[in-house]
Amino acid sequence: MTDTAIREFIRAEYGIEATLTRLAGENENYLVRANDGTDYVLKLADDGTTTAMIEMESLAVNRLMEEGLSIGLPRVIPTLKGKNEARANLGKDLIRGRLISFVAGKAWCETLPASTDRLEHLGGIIGKLARILSPLSHPAGEITHHWDLSQADQHRPLIPLVREPERIKILEKIFLWFEAIFIPVRETLPRGPIHGDINDDNVLVQADRVSGLLDFGDCIVNPVICDLAIALAYHTLDEADPLGAAAVITGAYDRERTLSPDEIRVLFPLLCARLAVSVIISAQRRQINPERSAWFVSEERAWKKLEHFSGISPDRAAAGLASQTSVAAQLNLESHQGQAPEHLARERKDFIAPSLSLSYKTPLKFVRGLGQYLFDHQGQPFLDLYNNVCHVGHCHPHVVSAGQAQMAVLNTNTRYLYDGLTEYARRLTATLPRELSTCFFVNSGSEANELALRMAKTVTGREDVLVVDNAYHGHTQTMVQISPYKFKGKGGKGKPEPWVHVVPVADGYRGQYKGHGPETGRAYGDEVKGILDKMDRPPAAFITESLLSCGGQVIPPQDYFKTAFSHVRNAGGLCICDEVQTGFGRSGTHFWAFETQGVVPDIVVMGKPMGNGHPMAAVVTTKEIAQAFANGMEFFATFGGNPVSCAIGMAVLDVIEKETLQEHARIVGGRLLKGLTDLMARHEIIGDVRGTGLFIGVELVKDRQTLAPATQEANRLVNALKESQILLGTDGPFDNVIKFKPPMVMSEADADMTVRVMDRILEQGL
Ligand code: PMP
Hints:
Layout: H1 3-14, E1 18-22, E2 29-34, E3 39-44, H2 51-66, E4 76-77, E5 86-90, E6 93-101, E7 106-107, H3 116-133, H4 165-182, E8 191-194, E9 203-206, E10 209-213, E11 220-223, H5 225-235, H6 242-256, H7 261-288, H8 299-309, H9 314-322, H10 328-331, H11 333-337, H12 341-351, E12 366-370, E13 373-376, E14 381-384, H13 397-407, H14 419-430, E15 438-442, H15 445-460, E16 464-468, H16 477-481, H17 484-487, E17 500-503, H18 520-534, E18 539-545, H19 560-570, E19 574-578, E20 603-606, E21 617-621, H20 623-629, H21 643-658, H22 661-679, E22 686-692, E23 695-700, H23 711-723, E24 726-727, E25 729-731, E26 737-740, H24 748-764
Helix pairs in contact: 3-5, 3-6, 4-7, 5-7, 6-9, 7-8, 7-9, 13-21, 14-21, 15-20, 18-19, 22-24
The structure holds 4'-deoxy-4'-aminopyridoxal-5'-phosphate.
């Protein structure tokens, strides 16, 4: 548009005769000097500027002026018709613009270094601004835009636009902080209108004091803390000690508007996220027009700070930022840390048996858990994709409070009557096929499998048991005897006991029936018959996991269980499904994984996820079997089914239902499975990706023809993932299968991040 046209626009809309000077910067802004000597700024609106945004902007500025925020602010000048925005048709085009009062001063970024006084002044102004604007609610502010810091995660999928692997790693880490530290409290933080872009261009300075604040164009309703985070991100860009400067600003802010511990904790992840969004938007813009230098002014400065900040732990940053506030004492981060990991690792050697192992070359120490995240002693979050015990999320508040409440009222045992036992049994059996209606409660998966086996032996009066190769059923004497994973593994005797008969794993990827298509399941099922025929005595039971976990995340092919069960039952044996790893909706399509094959076992065993970390397990069977087992010998497990356990078990079922976690597992697991499967096209080393819901295995091979296991590579991948703060583990007979069995609350964003990170690690080479 020509200057003449703009001048005409100003004359017609505002009745002002003026001269024009285009201002530097991203937007189309003009300095307007009226004939009477008054200066204004004309901001021509782009397509992204909505009426609501303009309304919010003038509302906020007017309120700040009324309430005496004593700095220069860009007051919106009404048009001759009394509107906040001027509109005129120029030819075919609609021109939209608004005139605002000119604010004197020099941009903060041009007047460096900033004195401590000035940093304090800035903090105080932002605190006061927050205090004034917070009560101002207006529907116009309930919008979002691509700089909305509370929604910074919308940019996360664009991380790969940045090409350098080291920089990608930094961004992944910062978004993990955002996801694990900010998102869980996002909805609980105080909200209100914020300026939205308190950057070092928008803050004006005169005589080493803040003299003005420009550009309320990004004003939206947000967690109030976002304004401080944005200001810290930009106003520490050129500081030699950025956290020190940020602490000064934060301290002064707190004196105007008291910060809460949660606000302090999210501040650092938020300020980093702002810088991360800035560099991602730059990367995006570079694709559109790499020549437009105004778009890239702060890019390298932002990267320098991101590189610096990503090396600081969230806890240390929070402690630093809180150091000059009233919240410092409440944060109490140091006491969370306890002993150093190296010290604990040494101490374990003194007191803990050497047969226990520790994961990773450099073991991790965790101090707290939340949802799908575990936090180490420095507040560093790790995405937990491995620990299925905390099924509904680490420390789920509903489960925690149910346990706490019951513990404060009554804990006794099953020799007395209390409501919880039958109430829980009723709810638990309601999730199972009708026949499976009688419960025994114990404390661990091993104990439950022991009981199931004892029951089968007692009821049938037989000894022999069929087990699946590579299976694991527990750590007790008998369980080790029926677990090929143990007796064939390190330190094992190598051979099964004479009463234990091993059937092959129904593995469609390896094994004798690989490539048999729809016949695979039946063929493996018939192998069971072959073994039964060779046995001297009929079996008491066939025990199998519904999906094989320690055996390498194997999903048995359809018809396997139908075929195998019918052979076992024809021989008079009972069928036991071990659902310790797979139950409670993990498979996504069904609550119990055996249901995926349309069978009903005679006995089902459950454990791990049942109490979300509280030790609980159960055996559920038919009335007839339970009756036949009742031969006079009492069954009593001191802790099994106690009132606290029942309350916790019930709370776990509540959460699964309320948060529709089975369906969630189907959706998120499906997305993760697809993402991982897509990686196969780019990485030869991935031989197979298999799974259902949030039970997934990725098998690494050296050669897709010979299937030679890539065991060391799998180990290196898991260690590299740990460096990217993702917890996974390997398993299977060759230890080459990456095992995914996360808390069921993991998100689609977590799934996408995991796929991106694995892709990057594999790209860089193991
Ligand atoms: N069954 C299966 C399938 C398991 O994976 C496990 C534990 N990994 C157990 C039983 C034993 O459970 P626990 O450790 O609670 O005794």
